[in-house]
Amino acid sequence: MADQSIISALVLGFIEGLTEFIPVSSTAHVLLAGHFLGFKSPGNTFAVLIQLGAILAILLVYFQRLLSIATALPSSFKARRFVLSILLAFLPAAVIGAMAHGFIKSVLFETPMLICIVLILGGIVLYAIDRLPLKPKYRDVMDYPPSLALKIGLFQCLAMIPGTSRSGATIAGALLMGTDKRSAAEFSFFLAMPTMLGAFTLDLYKNRNALNFDDVSLIAVGFIAAFVAALVVVRSLLNFVSSRGFAPFAIWRIVIGTAGLIGLWLVG
What we know:
It is an enzyme of class 3 (hydrolase). Catalyzes the dephosphorylation of undecaprenyl diphosphate (UPP). Confers resistance to bacitracin. By secondary structure, the chain is an all-alpha fold. Helix content is 77%, strand content 0%. Helix 1 packs parallel to helix 12 and helix 8 packs antiparallel against helix 13. The longest helix has 32 residues. It is globular. The mean pLDDT is 88.
């Protein structure tokens, strides 16, 4: 049983890393896979805490970029505006996430059918947006005005519903408000850093008394797997969406959501 749990944690970690930064909802994939694998985590803590692996992966890939922005802050208006934009975009999800944490974890995370339906609906919306003849006004994340960033942050709040996808909500909102596909994906990367770190910290604090040694070992396995998989995705995603757009992810969402519904109907 212990070996089976380790294998499940490894699989779920890879799923987390592969799906965290693409608009398919990593939380939905991890929760659905955990459901069908029979993997149990107190308070669904595992699904959130292994995100630290993905967080560290994106911090590693973007370390030089982050360092250059930090060193430019005293002298560069553009750098200061960018940091302000990220903070404003992060704020709505931080407030709503803190207020609704219990409901999200105990109700929404425990409803596999809802997750499947949201996956399908989100896929349809993402596919439709990807096919719209939009004319982007912003092609560089450093040029996003704070007002635009705040609106994107409001879209991110939709991801409180498992299956929506944090990156999917932010990317869809950014595209509708005049960004190109590459910068929309990159802004979702930057916004992921405080958002995911905040969710990790809050969940760790809320469940600090529920964790035991076995949980920690499983989380460590999932963390390492998520880190490795996320490294691969972050290094390749921007070039992929520049050439292929988001339609492949939209179709994937619909396929997985449909398969999940069929699986729930067959095995419960």
